[in-house]
Write a structure and sequence with these properties.
Blueprint: E1 14-18, E2 24-29, E3 37-44, E4 58-65, E5 68-74, E6 78-86, E7 91-99, E8 106-113, E9 118-125, H1 131-137, E10 142-143, E11 147-151, E12 157-161, E13 169-180, E14 185-186, E15 194-201, E16 210-217, E17 225-230, E18 233-240, E19 245-250, H2 256-264, E20 271-275, E21 286-290, E22 298-307, E23 310-314, E24 327-332, E25 339-346, E26 349-354, E27 359-364, E28 374-380, E29 384-394
Antiparallel strand pairs: 1-2, 2-3, 4-5, 5-6, 6-7, 8-9, 9-10, 9-11, 11-12, 13-29, 14-28, 15-25, 15-29, 16-17, 16-28, 17-23, 18-22, 19-21, 20-21, 20-22, 23-24, 25-26, 26-27
Length: about 425
C-alpha cells in the first residue's frame, strides 16, 4: 500500500511510500498524477545510527517548516526526522529525530495551510478499552486536535494546538498562588469532562519527589487520572531496570557513563541500564535505553541504571470498570524549571502539552463514576507553588451548538474538543552532528 505526500511540484510530483522489512521511504515521480515511475530510495531507516527506527514504516509524510524539512514515518510511535533537503538532487540528510506524541497517537498526517503559512498536524487516537464497548457506543477512535508544527532552534519538532480552538472557550475560572502538597488540592467550583486546563507550576524544590495534576477525579470513589512529573535519579550501581526497553545495543570498551550520555541526548529515552561485560549478556558491555520505567528497579550486580526527569500519565485509578494499561506515555522532561502544562480534556480523551509541545502525551481513559469530574493538584515530599491556574469550559465544534454545562455526563460519550495556542519559534540553524 502506498501513502503519498507531495515532495515537489517543480518536477511533477514525488511520492513517498512505505517499505517492508527494512524501513524506507521510496520516491516516485509523475507528470500527470496517473502514471508513476520509481525514482530512488528517498530515505532508509538508518539502523546504524538509530537501530530502533528499523523495520516496517508506514504513513510517511514530508514537508518544509522553519527553514528545515521534516520526514515522518509510523513504526510503533510516530517518528519525526529533521534534516536538510537538496531539491535538485532530491536528497534528504538526517540530523535530529524524535517522536510527535508519546501517547495514543498514530498514523498522523500534516497539511499546509496557505492562509496561516503553517503546517497543521492530525493524528489517529484509537480506543484502549474492549471492543464490546465500541459496539455499545456505536463508534470507535477519532482524530486528535489539530496542531501547528514548528521546528525550534535546537532542531526539535514542537506541536501546539491550533490557536483558533480558543473560540470554543466558554465560562472561565482563574486561580492564583495555589499551593500543592501531598494532600491533593481540589479546585473549588470547577468540574467537568470537556475542559481546557492551564497550570503554571513554579520552580520545583529539590526535595520534591513528584508533582502533578489529577483530572476526572471523583470525591466519592478512587477514580482519577494522574499526570505525574518525576525527577531524575543519579546512576545506581548494582541495579537493574528490567522493563521498558526500546533500544538495546552493545557498547564495547565503553562505560556506564557512555550509556547515560546516549540516553541524555535521546528524545525518547527516559531511563537507561548499563550491563557490564562478561556478565549476563556475554563478553561485551550492553546499553539498554528505555521508553518507560515499567515495574521499577531491582538489585542486580551486573547492572548500573539511571533515570531522567520525565512526565507520564498514570491510569491505574482511571476507571472502576475498564482495564486499560496503567501507564500511558512517558516523555523526557528537564526537571527543576518552571513548568507550563496545558490539558485538553474531552470526555474519554486527554491531550497534555508541556511547555508548548516540549513533551506531548495523548491518552484514552474511561471513568465509570458520574462524579469523576474534579481537578486536583499535588506535590509529594515538599511544597510547590503554582502562580496561576486557568480552566475553561469548552463548547462543541458543531455549528449552532450551545456550550455544555459543567454538570457530569454519562461515561463513554462522543468527545468534543478543546483549545490551544501557538508559539513563535526562531528559524533553526543547520547542524551536522547526528544525535539519537
Amino acid at each position: 500500500m502506498l501513502y503519498c505526500s507531495l515532495l515537489s511540484l517543480q518536477t511533477g510530483c514525488g511520492l513517498v511510500a512505505n517499505g517492508s522489512g527494512v524501513g524506507m521511504a521510496l520516491e516516485f515521480v509523475s507528470q500527470n498524477f496517473f502514471d508513476w515511475s520509481f525514482e530512488q530510495i528517498f530515505s532508509l531507516d538508518h539502523v546504524t545510527d538509530w537501530p530502533d527506527v528499523g523495520g516496517f514504516w508506514e504513513c510517511p509524510d514530508f514537508y518544509p517548516v522553519d527553514g528545515m524539512h521534516v520526514l515522518k514515518f509510523s513504526n510503533g510511535p510516530d517518528n519525526w526526522v529533521v534534516g536538510d533537503f537538496d531539491d535538485q538532487q532530491q536528497n534528504f540528510t538526517w540530523i535530529t529525530r524524535g517522536i510527535y506524541d508519546q501517547g495514543q497517537f498514530y498514523a498522523s498526517k500534516t497539511f499546509y495551510d496557505p492562509l496561516g503559512d503553517r503546517q497543521i498536524l492530525w493524528g489517529w487516537v484509537a480506543e484502549e478499552d474492549s471492543q464490546s464497548h465500541w459496539v455499545a457506543r456505536g463508534w470507535a477512535s477519532t482524530q486528535s486536535l489539530p496542531r501547528v508544527v514548528t521546528v525550534d532552534a535546537n532542531l526539535q519538532v514542537r506541536s501546539a494546538p491550533l490557536p483558533e480552538l480558543a473560540q470554543l472557550r466558554g465560562e472561565s475560572f482563574h486561580f492564583t498562588d495555589v499551593t500543592a502538597s501531598s494532600t491533593p488540592y481540589l479546585l473549588p467550583g470547577v468540574s467537568g469532562d470537556s475542559l481546557e486546563i492551564i497550570v503554571q507550576f513554579g520552580v520545583i524544590p529539590t526535595t520534591v519527589t513528584s508533582f502533578g495534576i489529577n483530572v476526572r477525579a471523583s470525591p466519592t470513589t478512587t477514580e482519577r487520572t494522574q499526570i505525574i512529573f518525576t525527577p531524575p535519579v543519579a546512576p545506581m550501581q548494582n541495579t537493574d531496570s528490567p522493563e521498558g526497553d526500546f533500544f538495546v545495543f552493545p557498547i564495547p570498551n565503553q562505560t556506564a557513563s557512555d550509556c547515560e550520555q546516549i540516553c541524555e541526548t535521546s528524545n525518547n529515552c527516559v531511563a537507561w541500564t548499563y550491563i557490564k561485560p562478561n556478565t549476563i549478556r556475554g563478553p561485551e558491555a550492553v546499553c539498554c535505553m528505555k521508553a518507560n520505567l515499567g515495574s521499577g528497579t531491582h538489585p542486580n550486580p551486573a547492572c548500573t541504571s539511571g533515570i531522567k526527569g520525565a512526565v507520564h500519565v498514570d491510569r491505574t485509578f482511571s476507571s472502576l470498570n475498564d482495564s486499560t494499561s496503567p501507564i500511558s506515555g512517558y516523555a523526557p522532561y528537564p526537571w527543576g524549571k518552571s513548568t507550563n502544562v496545558r490539558i485538553f480534556l474531552d470526555r474519554s480523551i486527554m491531550e497534555v502539552y508541556v511547555n508548548e509541545g516540549q513533551a506531548v502525551i495523548t491518552t484514552r481513559f474511561y471513568p465509570s463514576s458520574l462524579d469523576s469530574v474534579g481537578i486536583e493538584v499535588y506535590a509529594n515530599n515538599g511544597i510547590v507553588n503554582i502562580p496561576q491556574i486557568d480552566v475553561f469550559q469548552m463548547g462543541s465544534i458543531w455549528v449552532n451548538s450551545t456550550l455544555p454545562s459543567m454538570a457530569p455526563r454519562e461515561p463513554h460519550m462522543v468527545p468534543s474538543t478543546a483549545s490551544g495556542q501557538s508559539s513563535s519559534r526562531p528559524v533553526a540553524k543547520h547542524q551536522k552532528t547526528i544525535r539519537f
